[in-house]
Amino acid sequence: MRFRKIHGAGNDFVLLSDLGPEGDKEWPKEAERLCARRTGVGADGLVISRLISDRPAVLEVACFNADGSIATMCGNALRCSAWAAHRDYGFQQLTLHMAGVVHEALVSDDSVWVTAEVSEVLPRRLQVVINGRPTWFDSADTGTEHVVAIVDDVDAIDPVMVGRLVRHHADVAPLGTNVNFVQAVGHQALKIRTYERGVEAETLSCGSGAVAAVVVATMRGLVARRAVTVHNRAGQPLTVRPHDARPTRTQWVGGPVTHTFEGVLA
């Protein structure tokens, strides 16, 4: 099986495209094997993309986290899949299906955009003490569970230590949550660090987390309801903006996609 190593603004994946029937495998175990940083290809997740239709262009996309769990929404995995379909077939507008949810995608020369559906937003979902200060986390479901803390300085926080504590907090049991620390850094701009459930580590970028950050920051009055730049650990910002037709329910998230290398899996 041929694979691509590809990343969306630093969030990296092993991408398998258009596998035939012989390509069906026990994907959770394959994800653990392939995503291992020292013994595998190394990635935050394994993405399986299948072309369902070319007129119109429709892809079925599945994403498995590095621990083998399935991701119900991964904005950067969707963006990487759309980029690959653009390169392989020339598609610029696509429909993507992930975990039963329909997403739109737009591909240009320098960026890839996909939609994220925002459902429940809950202020003050849980509280923990960070660096001696009680800190509230709001929650926002952007296709997967996220909590967001607005902080003064994201670099003063240990995202792994605090992230693990919050990820397993009783108030988000039994599923747990992704954990985001967000700082306002100027006009319509945020800085973010994310601890991802399923990767069980800080990732360089998170598409659904960027959307959750903007939703919460908008609710808190830190940014206006229009395009917001979200600066991540990779130094490759994502932009989040409302969907023209469904501005209160749907957000676009866009940014760069980079093809790192490709190879053949034994």
Automatic annotation (TrEMBL):
The record marks 146, 196 as: Could be important to modulate the pK values of the two catalytic cysteine residues. PROSITE patterns: DAP_EPIMERASE. GO terms for biological process: lysine biosynthetic process via diaminopimelate. It catalyses: (2S,6S)-2,6-diaminopimelate = meso-2,6-diaminopimelate. The active site is at residues 74, 206. This is Diaminopimelate epimerase. Pathway: Amino-acid biosynthesis; L-lysine biosynthesis via DAP pathway; DL-2,6-diaminopimelate from LL-2,6-diaminopimelate: step 1/1. Keywords: Amino-acid biosynthesis, Cytoplasm, Isomerase, Lysine biosynthesis. The gene is dapF. The keyword Isomerase applies. Substrate binds at residues 11, 65, 75-76, 178, 196-197, 207-208. GO terms for cellular component: cytosol. Homodimer. GO terms for molecular function: diaminopimelate epimerase activity. It is found in: Cytoplasm. Catalyzes the stereoinversion of LL-2,6-diaminopimelate (L,L-DAP) to meso-diaminopimelate (meso-DAP), a precursor of L-lysine and an essential component of the bacterial peptidoglycan. Belongs to the diaminopimelate epimerase family.
